[in-house]
Design brief:
Layout: H1 4-17, E1 23-24, H2 31-36, E2 53-57, E3 60-67, H3 87-92, H4 94-108, E4 114-122, E5 127-136, E6 141-148, H5 160-167, H6 174-197, H7 202-216, H8 233-247, H9 253-263, H10 270-273, H11 283-294, H12 296-300, H13 307-317, H14 333-342, E7 351-353, H15 360-371, H16 382-388, E8 390-394, H17 397-409, E9 416-419, E10 443-446, H18 462-471, E11 478-483, H19 485-489, H20 493-505, E12 507-514, E13 529-534, E14 545-550, E15 555-558, E16 562-565, H21 569-582, E17 591-594, H22 604-607, H23 616-635, H24 644-650
Parallel strand pairs: 3-4, 7-8, 7-10, 8-9, 10-11, 12-14
Antiparallel strand pairs: 1-2, 2-3, 4-5, 5-6, 11-13, 12-13, 14-17, 15-16
């Protein structure tokens, strides 16, 4: 006769193995967890706890208990809570046993304070899985029902963060859900582009860009990619992009050639174009179906979320071509929109990003410009904005291709993107629609490459990028830049000389110190700052520059979700914008105003001094600290340090 318990074990084991992760049975390979289970027998004795299965997914521990009969899923007490009071409950019911083990782990370990407890029951035809979240904050343990699990694939590395965010952390906004969905798709594509097509790093972003353009063209029909031997599916996609760009005159010919050359490898790449039995189609057709179903439509909605930029960031994060090695840091959407607001980008502006990257600043600027009402005061239409008022410079071909695709997919048929070095450009290089007349660059948004400058190559200091961007801007133009704080410090002699040169021709308006987690997941330990300048208006000696501490911006890092709004971000942002634009009075802990010199560190921390009157509890704590210190020194034979007569004699 088949062992009913073994039958349930086999089913759960198959589900866990389908996740492609390591797991243990009846114990844990993690020493701290194994120790916590040492005296955690669910029978109520002193024996070791032996969970059916234990595995770690995205830094979260999962404990599983299973039973054969559906009636043994869970036992609740009189309060409707999981009964942990008697061995009968923890030993005979799957959820109770899993929660029992999870509770022991969160209360007895240092590094595993939140555990997912799963109770699973089932035979071959009747199965049910229920999950609980068990957390400990150092004082108390919370046990929360997070619902049924219909598909074990929610515990895969690609899907778990979204499941955890929605089911454990609670409801999140539609915008946050969309971003989580994009991140999930990016993670899925990251793995599958490598698994099915042997692609790494930047080539993944190139393939995605080409497919999206082909789908956007309405020339490509996915049915055309079925069962073809000649031409290859990649050739059909490439031809769709080429015809689309030529027929609609998208980009000048030389720029089209750059982009098409970057796409050309998809025509002949064997792994992309060879039909796979496990997919039933070629990988490139498979990727096209995913992008058509899940991504393409979002570009039509002019979302400010930089989808391609985030795909690129995901693709290079784990590879040898890590963009951070090149100083590439992708600016979060809430920062690009904040910077756009701080310099009041409007419908009549000509906007430049001289270090365009994936085009996220241009996307944010375009959205801001088109949100402004179109009336007698605003002479430019949405079409004119897209085609003639957005300029970008990018010197890396791979990023240029991503940025170009980004802008085309948002309806920018004649994107003014340049594949070039920004230092080679002058104010005369930004031409109006007539093809000959220069236009004034009135707003600049930028995130220059980080940490690329040195004494041997001072031109790549971030401060030099700022100087050149101001030099090619129109008089009175506004610039917003996000840089590391060292840029505003100016440690080297050369950097201080560049700061001097900036003040002689341009003026500094404000420097805002940001949340240290702003670039969470990209650049650890950097407390970035936003600096605001006015172009071609020399800095008056006594001008009062605003230095603002905006570390507390309402954005926090949530496990599995990354950087998220804690509910107060909008209020805090409004205070910042009002302070910058309307000169509202503020406490010095938030804003200090001061005249500056090139020798100064242009940071809030440099000019701020704590001028607040201590509160009574702060005074009491100081007295208590002093008395405790005096007592400690006295019992250790150093009481003479507090003898007034001795100390006055020493003076």
């Amino acid at each position: 006769m088949t062992n009913e318990k073994t039958n349930a074990d086999q089913w759960v084991r198959r589900e866990i193995e389908s996740l492609g992760i390591e797991y243990t049975e009846q114990t844990s390979s993690i020493k701290e967890v194994k120790t916590a289970l040492k005296n955690a027998s669910k029978q109520g004795g002193k024996g070791a706890g032996k969970p059916e299965f234990v595995f770690l997914i995205n830094d979260t521990l999962v404990v599983v208990e299973d039973k054969y009969s559906k009636s043994n899923l869970i036992m609740l007490d009189d309060k409707g809570e999981v009964d942990l009071s008697i061995p009968k409950a923890t030993a005979n019911y799957a959820v109770n046993g899993a929660v029992h083990y999870a509770k022991n782990i969160v209360e007895k370990t240092t590094n595993f304070k939140d555990v997912i407890a799963i109770g699973a029951v089932g035979s071959s035809d009747v199965r049910e899985t229920l999950a609980y979240s068990v957390t400990n904050d150092g004082e108390s343990t919370t046990i929360k029902n997070v619902g049924k699990v219909d598909d074990w694939q929610v515990f895969s590395s690609a899907n778990f963060d979204e499941w955890y965010g929605v089911n454990v952390l609670g409801d999140i906004s539609k915008e946050q859900k969309d971003e989580l969905e994009f991140k999930k798709i990016a993670a899925r594509l990251h793995e599958e582009l490598r698994k099915y097509a042997s692609l790494e790093g930047e080539n993944k972003a190139t393939v995605v860009s080409a497919i999206l353009l082909a789908l956007d063209s309405n020339i490509l029909n996915l049915e055309d990619l079925k069962g073809r031997a000649r031409p290859t599916d990649g050739s059909l996609i490439y031809r769709s992009v080429k015809d689309y760009m030529e027929d609609r005159a998208i980009l000048p010919e030389e720029k089209r050639s750059i982009v098409l050359n970057k796409f050309s490898f998809i025509k002949t790449n064997v792994a992309l174009n060879q039909k796979r039995q496990d997919l039933g189609m070629t990988p490139i057709r498979y990727f096209a179906s995913i992008l058509k179903s899940n991504v393409l439509e979002h570009f039509k909605n002019n979302t400010e979320f930089d989808i391609l930029g985030n795909f690129y960031g995901e693709f290079v994060k784990y590879g040898d071509s890590d963009g951070n090695g090149l100083g590439i840091v992708l600016t979060p959407k809430h920062i690009t929109s904040l910077m756009t607001e701080l310099i009041q980008v409007g419908r009549n502006d000509y906007v430049l990003d001289p270090t365009a990257g994936s085009g996220s600043f241009l996307i944010s600027a375009m959205n801001s410009m088109m949100k402004e009402p179109f009336d007698a005061k605003t002479k430019y239409s949405n079409s004119h904005i897209k085609q003639h008022q957005l300029f970008g410079i990018e010197m890396q071909e791979k990023m240029y291709t991503v940025a170009t695709t980004n802008m085309i997919l948002r309806g920018d048929g004649k994107s003014n993107l340049m594949l070039d070095d920004m230092f080679s450009k002058t104010a005369e290089d930004f031409i109006s629609e007539d093809g000959t007349t220069p236009v004034p660059i009135t707003k600049v948004l930028m995130n220059p490459p980080y940490s690329q400058g040195s004494k041997s190559n001072p031109s790549l200091y971030e401060i030099n990028f700022i100087k050149h961007a101001l030099d090619i801007s129109a008089k009175g133009g506004k610039l917003a830049v996000i840089v590391p704080p060292s840029t505003m410090t100016g440690k080297s002699k050369i950097e201080k000389e560049i700061k001097q040169a900036i003040l002689e021709k341009h003026s500094l308006d404000a420097v805002i110190t940001l949340n240290p987690n702003t670039f969470h997941g990209q650049r650890a330990g950097v407390e970035p700052v936003i600096a605001l300048f006015t172009a071609k208006e020399p800095h008056p000696d006594q001008k009062q520059v605003k230095f603002i501490n905006f570390k507390d911006d309402g954005w926090i890092v949530k496990k599995h979700l990354g950087l998220q709004d804690n509910g107060y971000a909008a209020t805090k942002r409004k205070k910042l914008v009002d302070t910058v634009l309307y000169d509202l009075p503020s406490e010095t802990s938030f804003m200090v105003k001061s005249a500056i010199t090139p020798e100064d560190e242009w940071l809030h921390s440099y000019f701020y001094f704590n001028d607040s009157i201590p509160k009574p509890d702060a005074f009491e704590k100081t007295v208590q600290d002093y008395l405790a210190f005096k007592f400690d020194q006295t019992v250790h034979g150093r009481g003479y340090l507090f003898d007034e007569e001795v100390n006055s004699t020493k003076k």
